[in-house]
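Example (one chain per record):
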Amino acid sequence: MKKIIVILIIVFTAGLVAPAWYFSGRLLYPEPQECPKDHFLYCGDPSELKLAWEDVSFKSNDGVNLSGWFIPSGKSDRAIIMVHGITANRREGLRWAKSFNRAGFNLLLLDLRNHGKSGKAVSGMGMHEKADITAAMDFLLGLRKMKKAGLFGVSMGAGTGIPAMAQDRRIAAGVFEAGYADLYDLLSVMIVRDFHLPPFPLLNMTSLLFRIRGGIPMSAVSPEKYIGSITPRPVFIIHCTDDHYIPFSHGERLFAAAKEPKEFFSAGCTIHAQAWQSDSKFLEDRITRFFRENLK
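Predicted structure:
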């Protein structure tokens, strides 16, 4: 009888650890996508939009090599950092590039660590990547002599940009599209919705392995805990009303946790992080105006 109990315990533990290892690995070591044309829209470089550009590289303060595209705008000394989501790369920001650049903003389309052409490193769903945003600000304000910079973060880029902006007071304004309010809460939804499994005890084991393998507690990956401290600098939250991946409620939570000045736009879309596709002209005009007002 004791043997059977021991065997059952071993089988149960293995059956729990294996999927938890898989889920935590997907977060910490995301596999890059090929360019999904329906989402990225542009799969080349900025010349596809007839924009001048150059490859740039610099290092984060923890030694990770970072790469990106710098798109200049005449003699302007204002800039926007474009930050992509998990498994994506700098190309995700190209759909916004022409309108922002024509409005007089220099652009830095950044590959976060472990994405695109940047160096390999453990990802942290925004917590390790904060250092990448700080390095991007150092690059823009130092080497490129920018006077003011904002950022535009999508999905994990929002999950990175919010704590980065809370920490780095040099970031003057932030737009955050399709962000998660809290990673633990998001995973609890995804485990049920996408894998038809109960959250307990799989989520608990995944959280434990995330901490052991990634060096950070999952409880820290909670942008809604940071966004309130961004004030008095302005934030603009965008979320698809029927986002199939990160529920609309996460956008509402981020907006509720933010302090004034703040704005919210409910985009009429069902696919994750595709607000631009829902109403490109209106959003380009509105977000361009937001940056013009706040990067004076």
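Caption: The first strand starts at residue 54 and ends at 59.
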